Amino acid sequence: MDTVGIRNIGIYVPPEIKDSARIAKLSGIPEDVIRDKFGIVHVHEARQYETVSYMGIEAARKALDGFDPKNLDLVVYCGSEFKDYYLFNCAASIQHEIGAVNANAFEIHSLCSAGVYSLKVLKSMMLCDDSINHVLLVSSSKETQIINYKNHNSRFMFNFGDGAAAVLLEKGMDKNVILETHMISDGQFSEDVAVFGVGCRNFKEGEDIKCSDKYLDVPNINSMKERLDPVTLNNFNEVIAESVKKSGYENKDIGFIAPIFMKRSILENILGRYNLTEENSFVLEEFGHCQSADAFISLSEGRKKGRLKDGDIAVLLGAGTGYTWAATAVRWG
């Protein structure tokens, strides 16, 4: 019983799409730049009723696929902090709506690296607690609603798309086994990106939040880029290599990389370091950045396309503003 495996993955993306032409129109950035530099063909756009919890519930039901939710011991939400409501327990809502009446529920937040790192947290909990045998991990994002396309300081977030992923974990499963994780945190970036109009630092009783303060913002994009660009690629490669090393494997054993959204040129750079090609990964150009659901979408799509094969050492890769980089290795099949 010293293993935890991924029993199933469920993905939900809204049917409506926002293509590169529409993003170009909203932002004033040429469409060829959106497609070639930003790496977006289209993203999925949630309708009003497709809330963060709604999408998470839909993904959860797909992940369960015949598994009785009454047998879940834990439901964990690790997605966007922009949820249905401010200070809202999304995990509890999902637990209730899917009928997981015997499960506890809580949330893990680490922005866009939370999904990858939550696998480590939950694996550790499951192996340390005899009463936790089946866990449902859910990530969901509708952060497209808090992007101001006229604010080009936040242009690196114009690739956001809506969607959700859910992962059913099972203790004692010798299939799709979760191996080891590595993370790098660099808190110098902690205040570079935020919704600066919401929170206790600037809360004044009786004062309404200005509309412009409800959007994600990057007050000094040039400063962030000057500090971030020299380290981010190295940090991605370090967390990949260290997660594999901790798992008892070598870089040459990597067969698949399931990345967070990144433009093709960066992904190709990373893949090349491990003698891999796009056939060993998945480019999220028709999904966009769905927060910490990205790596699970990549894993699911890679499996559907036959790129993720039994016996592969797959590495799930994430990064979150703040700034954190994380990777978790999985022995697939």
Structure commentary:
The structure is a single chain. With 333 residues, the chain is of the alpha/beta class. The chain folds into 2 domains: 4-175, Peroxisomal Thiolase, Chain A, domain 1, CATH 3.40.47.10; 179-331, Thiolase/Chalcone synthase (Peroxisomal Thiolase, Chain A, domain 1). Helices cover 29% and strands 21% of the residues. The protein contains 8 helices and 11 strands. The chain has helices at 20-27, 31-36, 52-64, 90-97, 114-128, 221-246, 264-273, 294-304; strands spanning 4-12, 17-19, 42-44, 74-77, 104-107, 134-141, 163-171, 177-185, 254-258, 313-320, 324-331. Strands 1-7-6-4-5 form a 5-stranded mixed beta sheet, sandwiched between helices. Strands 8-11-10-9 form a 4-stranded mixed beta sheet. It has a two-stranded antiparallel sheet with strand order 2-3. Helix 4 links the parallel strand 4 (74-77) and strand 5. Helix 3 (52-64) crosses helix 4. It is globular. The model has no long low-confidence stretch (mean pLDDT 95).
The CATH topology of the largest domain is what? Answer: Peroxisomal Thiolase, Chain A, domain 1
Taken as a percent bin, the fraction of beta residues is 15-25%
CATH architecture of the largest domain: 3-Layer(aba) Sandwich
Order of helices and strands: EEHHEHEHEHEEEHEHHEE
CATH superfamily placement of the largest domain: Thiolase/Chalcone synthase
Shape: globular
- Percent of residues in helices comes to 25-40%
Strand arrangement, major sheet: 1-7-6-4-5
Give the C-alpha Rg: 19 Å
Number of domains: 2
